Amino acid sequence: MNELELKYGCNPNQKPSKIYMADGSDLPITVLSGKPGYINFLDALNGWQLVKELKEATGMPAAASFKHVSPAGVAVGLPLSPVLKKIYWVEDMGELSPLACAYARARGADRMSSFGDYISLSDICDEDTAKIIKREVSDGVIAPGYTPEALDILKSKKNGNYNVILIDPEYTPLPIEKKQVYGVTFEQGRNEIKIGREVLVNRVTENKEIPEAAEIDLIISLITLKYTQSNSVCYTKNGQAIGIGAGQQSRVHCTRLAGSKADNWYLRQAPKVLELPFLDDIRRADRDNAIDVYIGEDDMDVLADGRWEQVFKEKPSVFSREEKRQWLDQLTDVSLGSDAFFPFGDNIDRAYKSGVKYVVQPGGSVRDDQVIETCNKYGMVMAFNGIRLFHH
């Protein structure tokens, strides 16, 4: 099949709409269920590239949770701790396959942003992974294959209308890519740069020690940034992205946004949050929203009289700013990647507040010395990789 007609483009008024192969070849995808739309395919194809590359770089199954052409979460298939199982809402599912762990991590890092995501999987979707997908609000999934059990589960989602895409893992796109804006055709070579441990060799700080786990985290951050709308910054820890700041005009705003998401990820693991007395029949999305408000600055929106009764069995105590800072001070050994150079040391100051110890960025700013000096002040390790990873 060379082309596939879509319901509409980015918006319902944008018709006609289709995807097709300009060279006359067959599309590398097959729709197994549902009717994916224009944005679904943008998310699916960007996400597939990310997880395919991440699997090649780490040797581990990878998953991504995409929303509006940027990842909300990315992870490899490392086992989940009891606390992560709890905050990712999979503690009732027993032992999970590595691929299922990867998606639980990707989905769970920023659950607010992942609501209604498009899922990308590096490996054949198994039953464990399909069971997690089944219970979440999601638009669809793309993978290089599905077990019969997994496909049956996914096809039953949304009354049989859930979008399931099969991608040919052997497909290789042409080396030149094109797109149109306002009737003008843009052409460029595909970004085929490979990201591995060799990009971490040029360590410019006084501290040059990066343990193997942090090297993997830095690689995850860079591959994630390669498929994230620029400007972008990515915080990672223990095999997953924990905060992604995408599409900001100012780099320090990227760092702040991603840092606030990393903070939220860690605050959700605080005993005070884990012990929140939710009503038994509260819906998953309402529970996520309540936690996000509770750990934020507007906590009275969920703790005020007449509000808390809709969510909790009993009124929780306030999670004070001092308590939150004390808990966040325990977050350490976080890795941070940037898709372009840091122009000022204020990015490093903000990153330090979220436990960052390892940094990778292209370098090349006229203020590199200032940024290096700021890293040295905090005992961080920073590598210059010389690679810009803008994506638009």
From TrEMBL:
InterPro entries: AICAR_Tfase_dup_dom_sf, AICAR_Tfase_insert_dom_sf, Cytidine_deaminase-like, PurH-like. GO terms for biological process: 'de novo' IMP biosynthetic process. One of its GO terms (cellular component) is cytosol. It comes from the Bacteria. SUPFAM superfamilies: Cytidine deaminase-like. Gene3D superfamilies: 1.10.287.440, 3.40.140.20. GO terms for molecular function: IMP cyclohydrolase activity; phosphoribosylaminoimidazolecarboxamide formyltransferase activity. Coiled coil: none annotated. Pfam families: AICARFT_IMPCHas. Keywords: Hydrolase, Transferase. This is Phosphoribosylaminoimidazolecarboxamide formyltransferase/IMP cyclohydrolase. It comes from Lacrimispora xylanisolvens.
